[in-house]
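Minimal example, chain plus flavin-adenine dinucleotide.
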Amino acid sequence: MPLAPLTTFRIGGPAALLYRARSADELVEAVTVARTLGVRHHLLGSGANILVDDAGFPGLVIRSEVGGIEWLDEGLVRAGAGVQTFPDLIVESIRRGRGGLHHYVGIPSTVGGALWQNLHFLSPDRSRTCFIEEVLESAEILTEEGERRRVGVDYFEFGYDDSILHHRDDVVLTADFRLEAVPEEELRAVVRENLRWRDDRHPDLWLYPSAGSIFKKIEGIGAGRLIDECGLKGHVRGGAGIFHRHANIVVNLGGASSADVRALIDLARETVLRETGHELETEIGFVGGPEDRSARSPIS
Ligand SMILES: Cc1cc2nc3c(=O)[nH]c(=O)nc-3n(C[C@H](O)[C@H](O)[C@H](O)COP(=O)(O)OP(=O)(O)OC[C@H]3O[C@@H](n4cnc5c(N)ncnc54)[C@H](O)[C@@H]3O)c2cc1C
């Protein structure tokens, strides 16, 4: 089974094994079995922040499809780790007149991926960045040590594009979000404005598949601006190109390989270092290939 259709980049070869975990119990079981047998595995959400190698992944890919949206009280919603934040969870919360998640409209992510990333976007007046940690109340996780337990927001040690999930092999099973009452019209106005903002700056995912920003933010400067200043907007390698409106995004122009994307990443890194002295660090994760950090030995 090729992994390309399971990613927003639409790039990547097959996994040796693919398992779709449709409940928290199935996700716990799959991860536990892989850990016990020492099988190299990768936990996949909606594949919006990864580049899968052309040769695929020589191990077990566990796709988190844990569903379920349950309102525990008026403002507290529990969602499975595999629920799509947009449209599913956000549309449902807006319909109930609850705000806090609506800032992240238009961003492809599962709930688990959103906690991994500490999903973020600009506030409606654009004066600050909103983070999903602000509405997270608790989550049920399977710890690296194999314990299934509920943890509070502090456990995640959230930062910009960062959480404990980058540093520990914990798995999110479900998450509870505390959402405030906001008039539905107000929510819809923010949603419209944010979608318009994205539309003006970001590639349309259906026409130009991508993984969002390739490089981490450089405080006060912006990775995209540095790449742009080096004249790299619009550069093409094979089927991949640096997006003409946003230089921190590489798009699949049709038939791109992971090698094409890596070539552009290397070009941007080397050029920016040479011309500005700044070191670009990738934000996206690599699945398969030399930079893959997935745990455990390969399936033999
Ligand atoms: C067009 C586009 C625009 C974007 N815009 C933004 C933006 O404005 N703001 C922003 O913050 N991000 C943005 N992103 C990045 C992306 O949406 C986020 O990183 C998203 O949270 C990734 O979620 P995912 O489910 O796709 O995770 P994946 O890409 O599948 O996985 C990412 C990581 O999360 C881990 N993971 C997944 N599920 C779990 C789980 N249940 N438990 C533990 N770890 C898990 C994976 O193992 C992997 O390491 C954008 C991406 C795209 C393609």
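The radius of gyration is 19 Å. The first helix runs from residue 24 to 37.
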